[in-house]
Specification:
The chain is mainly alpha-helical. It is built from 10 helices and no strands. The termini are far apart.
């Protein structure tokens, strides 16, 4: 299957994002692959419009580099960039603003609440990738990327990750979050025991 979460579908969008996004890292293309695959799983169960959901998933972090370079909010800038790109690539009609809305509403700290099923699913999928074993790995990657250590990862888990299970919008998201949250909580409890014998 490669790195394209939907073989043969949306490959032009995929290539556009991959050209400007690092392959790996706490918000690299590997994160985008996992979010798109989670969107597929949740979208099937929740009967979402995949023509909106999957492009939104692929494009959801397109402005991460701009946020790091210029300090813009990646969800707002990403929605703008995605809409411009989609229109230039020949997309028209209601799917374009629906994709842009999902991108603008996906972030944990977004001030725009998700109003559509597809936006709710993208928000859930992005949060699910911050939970469980992958979430733990990303937390330590993020700490390292910002010059931090174990305590920085623990603080991030306490400040943000512990809240994510309660912020799911869909029933499928809530079900998937329960197991991931329990695994993560157990890991950080054991980490504290080992750090403070």
């Amino acid at each position: 299957m490669g790195t394209d979460p939907v073989p043969g579908a949306f490959s032009e969008i995929w290539n556009h994002v991959a050209a400007t996004t690092p392959a790996a890292g706490s918000h690299g293309m590997d994160h985008t692959v996992r979010v798109a695959r989670l969107c597929e799983v949740i979208g099937r169960e929740e009967h979402a419009d995949m023509r909106v959901l999957i492009p939104a998933a692929i494009l959801h972090d397109i402005a991460r580099p701009a946020e790091e370079e210029r300090g813009v909010r990646h969800e707002a800038e990403g929605a703008r960039m995605a809409e411009d790109y989609l229109r230039s690539a020949g997309y028209h009609g209601p799917s374009v603003p629906a994709i842009a809305h999902a991108i603008q509403a996906h972030r944990y700290r977004s001030t725009v609440p998700p109003e559509t099923l597809e936006a709710k699913i993208l928000s859930d999928a992005d949060k699910l990738d911050a939970l469980g074993a992958v979430g733990i790995a990303r937390t330590f990657l993020r700490a390292g990327e910002h010059g931090g250590g174990i305590q920085d990862a623990v603080d991030h888990a306490r400040d943000k990750l512990e809240k994510l299970e309660g912020l799911m919008y869909t029933e499928t998201g809530r079900r998937l979050a329960r197991n991931r949250h329990a695994f993560m909580a157990g890991f950080f409890a054991e980490l504290e025991r080992e750090r403070n014998p």
